[in-house]
Amino acid sequence: MRIADGNTSDISLSDDEEGDQQPTQTDNQPDVAAGPSSPVDENDNNDGESTKKTRVSWTAKDFVRPDTTFQCEYDDPVAVAEPIEYFLKYISEEVFEEMARCTNIYVMQTTGTILATTPDEIKRLLGVLIIMGTLKFPRMRMYRQPATQIPTICEAMSVNRFFKLRSALHVTESTTPHSPADKFWKVRPLLNAVKERVLQLPPSEHNSIDEQIIPFTGRAAAKQFIRNKPNPEEVKVFLRCSADGMAHDFELYQGKGTGVSEEHKSLGLGGSIVMRLIKDLPLYRNFKCYFDNYFTSVGLLQELKSIGIWAVGTIRANRLQGCVLKTDKELRREGRGSYDQKVTKDGDVILVRWQDNGVVNVASSYVGVDDLSTARRWSEATKQHIDIPCPALMKDYNTFVGGVDKMDFLLSLYPLRQRTMKWPVRVIGYFVSFAIVNSWLEYVKHAEMNRMQRKNTLDLLAFQNEVAMALIMSSKNVAKKRGRPSLQEPSEPPPRKVHNAEPRPVNAVRYDGLNHWPAHSSQPFAQRCKFEGCKSRTRIRCQKCNVFLCLSATKNCFYAFHNK
């Protein structure tokens, strides 16, 4: 977590459950005002940490920076794909099939009725939820009320069907055998699918490790309660992200008394989490990790160095393992920018205490004070900005530690967080948002690799809307139903007449080859053909794409429009 001020928590960028505060993104400027120790969460007091302290000898010599040249090579640039293609790598067709099957079984077991949902209908449900996340109406029924109606949502699914599906949504059967220690077994197939994808991503040289929260006020086996937090009730997620915010690994916290690996018991809960989150990184390739004082210990940095991974992190005063540094009072007397340092006798770890607005302790295994850079600060005494000395390890820390914060910021922009008392529904919504954000970061990275112009690159909002529309329409059968209305799915209200020009379908729908049927329009006048370069008029309309296209013996824009 980037250090900002003494009152900033590790999760301060997260939204409230129902709040509508606007998120703000942090910058990359080093800024320190936190003391040597930070408040400890009641439920997360690094439980499991060994009381036995390994003795470490410290000396006042200079830190010798090792060779940490990054040694990973990556493949050639990857072609830019459609948004839905990125998303389906995280939540695949097999996951949708399993969700439909388990949801049908759950309804049959609990109510004795037949739900008869399908993978395509589950896609439409998620597509509707994604669109709701971008619009953020205060009440879910407002999307269907006459004054605020959204036609895309109304036409995708009836209101009764929507609430029934959302309430019954399941990812696994209730009778599935599971470990009693796995408190998230109800959503484990989805977690495994998303995790499998993030582990396939090319690893980044710089990795930040921090926590995120899933705000939730209902009953959940692994929920945390932390006083004086914006969201006191939460499900906690630990992530490893690259500096651009892309997640490369994660795990959900199972609750107090869990999470401490037997082989890393001496490192405590925070150290055990770090060791699990980096276990899939190639060893001895000079990866760098950054984390806050919840995780950092001298033993953790030494353990990481032994497998060729370097680290920098703020560290609590009670974990200095006998290192004697100048007191806070002495550093304040010397002024902002002053510091004191000590190095282990073996020269593998350096501890620095630096005075900014407050005093902060930082530990590092690969970078020390080196050539001092400067940090720009506001001086209350002189009422102007001043430059103060900044150690190199603080500059590296503040530059690369914010990856998880960036992911948290992006997740808070358009979240799938409607009210629910069922924790699996909330966790599913979080990981759908997670998949969209990570997909978009992949897309942006590929766009940059292919030197796509910025104006042609989709932002997160546009990307999320394209994913939603592809989920709603990619398998939507537009043929009119015959016979009596189904008892399971109430008839949907007739679509409202729209007099404006219809927008073009997203490419994932346009080229999917499913249910594109021509139909004669009953309008009194022919309409302009929507195929690029054609200026003719026609009365033939694609029922699925809802665009007019020429279809005659001499011209077939209908075929050309739907094929690349």
Please sum up the structure shown.
With 564 residues, the protein is an alpha+beta fold. The chain has 15 helices and 16 strands.
Write the layout of secondary structure elements.
Blueprint: E1 58-59, H1 83-87, H2 93-111, H3 119-135, H4 151-156, H5 159-168, H6 188-198, E2 206-215, E3 224-225, E4 233-242, E5 247-252, H7 268-277, E6 287-291, H8 298-305, E7 309-314, H9 328-334, E8 339-344, E9 350-355, E10 359-364, E11 373-379, E12 384-390, H10 392-400, H11 403-411, H12 423-449, H13 460-473, H14 507-510, E13 518-520, E14 527-528, E15 537-538, E16 540-542, H15 557-561
Parallel strand pairs: 2-6, 6-7
Antiparallel strand pairs: 1-8, 2-4, 3-4, 4-5, 7-10, 8-9, 9-10, 11-12, 13-16, 14-15
Helix pairs in contact: 2-3, 3-13, 6-12
Question: How does this structure look, described?
Answer:
Residues 21-31 have a biased composition (Low complexity). Residues 1-55, 479-504 are annotated as: Disordered. Residues 1-12 have a biased composition (Polar residues). By secondary structure, the chain is α+β, with helices and mostly antiparallel strands. It folds into three domains: 58-71 and 202-410, no CATH class; 75-201 and 413-513, no CATH class; 516-564, no CATH class. The protein contains 15 helices and 16 strands. It has helices spanning 83-87, 93-111, 119-135, 151-156, 159-168, 188-198, 268-277, 298-305, 328-334, 392-400, 403-411, 423-449, 460-473, 507-510, 557-561, and strands at residues 58-59, 206-215, 224-225, 233-242, 247-252, 287-291, 309-314, 339-344, 350-355, 359-364, 373-379, 384-390, 518-520, 527-528, 537-538, 540-542. The strands form four sheets. Strands 1, 2, 3, 4, 5, 6, 7, 8, 9 and 10 form a ten-stranded mixed β-sheet that branches. Strands 11-12 form a two-stranded antiparallel sheet. Helix 3 (119-135) packs antiparallel against helix 13 (460-473) and helix 6 (188-198) runs parallel beside helix 12. The two termini are 46 Å apart. The model is unreliable at 3-45, 47-52, 478-482 and 485-492 (pLDDT under 50).
